Every structure is written in C-alpha cells, then in structure tokens.
Amino acid sequence: MENQQLLDIAQEFGAPVYVYDAGKIQSQYNRLTEAFSSVPRLKLNYAAKALSNLSVLRYLKSLGSGLDTVSIQEVQLGLRAGFNPEDIIYTPNGVSLEEIEQAAALGVQINIDNLSILEQFGHLHPKTPVCIRINPHVMAGGNSNISVGHIDSKFGISIHQIPHLLRIVELTGMHVNGIHMHTGSDILDIDVFLYASEILFDTAKHFKELEFIDFGSGFKVPYKENDIQTNVGELGQKLGGRFNAFCEEYGRPLTLSFEPGKFLVSEAGYFLARVNVVKQTTSTVFAGIDSGFNHLIRPMLYGSQHEIHNLSNPEGKERYYSVVGYICETDTFGSNRRIREISEGDILCFRNAGAYCFTMASNYNSRYRPAEVLWLDGKAHLIRERETFEDLLRGQVEVPDLFEAKPAAPVGGAQQTNGNRPKGNLKIKSAAER
C-alpha cells in the first residue's frame, strides 16, 4: 500500500488503526499453493489465532482456505464466517474434555495432543475421527515462547510415548485419520523441518486409515529490508517430493496439510498511530504515540522488530528516535531507530502488523482497542469499529447499595438478650476485681 492511501485511512477512521491489505494475503496464499503444486492433495488451514476478524476469515475462505482453530470460540467464529465443519481443524492444548466434546458435536476435525484426553475421548466417542498431535522433540522457532516441538514443550504426545499411544488406540478402537506436528514459528532451517517430517512419516506408518498428514507451519516472514525468511520454494520442492514418495509407500494418496497464520497475514498488516509528543532528554529523543503495548505487544513480549515509517514526512531527513507508547510501564516499540524527521501530529506506520497484533490487544490502562480496516479492490472497508466507553463497561455488574454506608450501631442501648456481650464501651476488670 502507498503512503497516501494509508494516510487517507488514518484521516477517515482515526488513529490508532489496523489496516490489512487483502491483495498481500492473496499473494502469500498463492505462494504456498504454487510451492507445493507437485502435491495432488494440498490443504491450507489458516491459523485463526493470528488474526480472527470475521471479514478476514471470510476472505481466506473465498481463496479456498480451510481453518485451524485452537479454542471452541475460534471454531464458532469459523462457522459464523461460513466455513464448513469438515474444513475446520480444532487443535487445543490443555482444555477440558467437555470443550473437546463441544467441538466434536459441531462436526469439526478433532486434533488431540495428550494421552489422558485421548483415552477418555476414545472410550466415549470411538467412532469420531481423531487426529493426533505428535511432539517430534525438535527445537525450532525464533523465540522460546514460540518453539513448541522440543522435549520440554507442553504441546503434543512425545514420540517416546508411541507404544502407549498405540495401546490406547487399540483398546478403544478409535479411528485415527490424521497425524500432526508443529515445531514452532519463524522456522529458518529447512533441513531441521525435513528431519522432523521424517519422524512424522515414521509415526504415520503405525496407522492404516490416515487421510492426511499435517505439518503445522511456522514459516518465517521478513521483518525488515533484506531480512532472512523461510524459502518456501525450496521447502515445497523437497518436502513435496518426499510426501509424494511416502504416499506411494503408504499405498494410497493422502492430503498434505499446513496451518499458516503469520505467513499469510503478517506482511499484509499496517498499524497506524499518531505522534503525541516529541521529547528530548539528555541522551534520547522519544517519539511518544497514541498507543502502547496494549495494542502491539510483540516487541515487548517476543523482542520482535517492526519497521517504523513516518508517513507524514516520507522525504524528511533521517534522525534517531526511540518510539514509545502511552502506557504507564516501559513500552518501547523501537530504540534508536533511524526514521524520517518526526513532528508532533505525524502518522507513524508499523509494518508486519497483521499477525498477533489485534488478537493480542487488550484494554490495559482502560484504553480502547482500535478499529480494523480491510483494503480490498482499491477501497477501504471498516471491519471493526473502534471501542467506546460503553465497551469497557459491557459485562461489568454494578450492584445497587453494595457500598452504601451502614448506619452506626447505637451506643449504650438496650442489653442484648442472646447471651452476647452488649455493644458499646466495655469495662476491663482489674486483677483485684477478678
């Protein structure tokens, strides 16, 4: 998107505001499908947790995507967006059996990642097809919080527990129709991913009625100019060929599934914020904006980098700024960044704001969450209104008279007759009187 288009959106809808470029989402979707064009049966299930606005979900459905969900609420959003239940996979972690049964009742594909729930679900619903999430014990991912396939991870069933897993499947008679893994986000080393895939192929041989193998996702996108990223073309060539060979060994065609989230929407997103104040200290020039980590927590939580551009002065001289928010804690978006000269009132643009930005936003400091806008076919469409004070009050219960002052008890009044001491001043007996 061009500077002026983004400035027009900030003018029309106010700042701060999230903007999503539908064209970029489509191009990323096409990149993946083309990379794996050698695979006859490919299924991309968009990871709703990255950005779950209904309009974005509907747009991805129009491209042919399925949906990857991690909560019953995301399942319900997917159904509301028009996805067929069979095009939704539900991969929770640490949820109750009751929630999993809720999802199963809605007809979506269940994916279970622990032996306890697998055994309980298998006894109660042996005819319901189940996918099983395996932990391959492979360390991958750009941050410890998003590396989920290693031996100490809470996710998945350990490959060392395969004998126990097979015993549960045999005793319950349950129908396993899929095998799944997800090693982590921001994967760079394709060979590590292929190594984990071989573990998944070996595991798949134990199950004779599979319909698909799900390799998760975690493809890295660039966060700055000349940044490294996952080579999906090379991955498609190597993994696609290996997958086709495995299907030959297995004896019938299977579907290759992925769950891209960040890869599809991260680069499509822009977060626009207005500069409230430019503050010079003895060592730093701060650009304080009308936002904080309540709207964009990733730099503080993951140490992630988002390029910051001054849309209002794109040709200005570059200076060094630390861009900070208005939250009453340290909320630094970027330290000593080279940005075109900033003045109060300028609009700053944060790139890569499509994934895990609005979905991780909060009302911390009782601030409102911003509006969301979808840029589609050369036009800006409001897809979520900016919150108001009424949104902060929604759900709160004001109990009448709960904190009303109570009348004081009378002093020196009639004696109580229930055997308790009377209220009022009590005389302490001396030792001689006792």
UniProtKB/TrEMBL annotation:
Cofactor or coenzyme needed: pyridoxal 5'-phosphate
Record's catalysed reaction(s): meso-2,6-diaminopimelate + H(+) = L-lysine + CO2
Domain Orn/DAP/Arg decarboxylase 2 N-terminal span(s) in chain numbering: 23-266
Residue intervals of the Orn/DAP/Arg decarboxylase 2 C-terminal domain: 18-354
InterPro entries: Ala_racemase/Decarboxylase_C (IPR009006), DAP_deCOOHase_LysA (IPR002986), De-COase2_C (IPR022643), De-COase2_N (IPR022644), De-COase2_pyr-phos_BS (IPR022653), Orn/DAP/Arg_de-COase (IPR000183), PLP-binding_barrel (IPR029066)
Active site: C328
Superkingdom, taxonomy of origin: Bacteria
Region feature (Disordered): 408-434
Keywords noted in UniProt: Amino-acid biosynthesis, Decarboxylase, Lyase, Lysine biosynthesis, Pyridoxal phosphate
Function: Specifically catalyzes the decarboxylation of meso-diaminopimelate (meso-DAP) to L-lysine.
Family classification: Belongs to the Orn/Lys/Arg decarboxylase class-II family. LysA subfamily.
This protein's name: Diaminopimelate decarboxylase
Taxonomic lineage of the native organism: Bacteria, Pseudomonadati, Bacteroidota, Flavobacteriia, Flavobacteriales
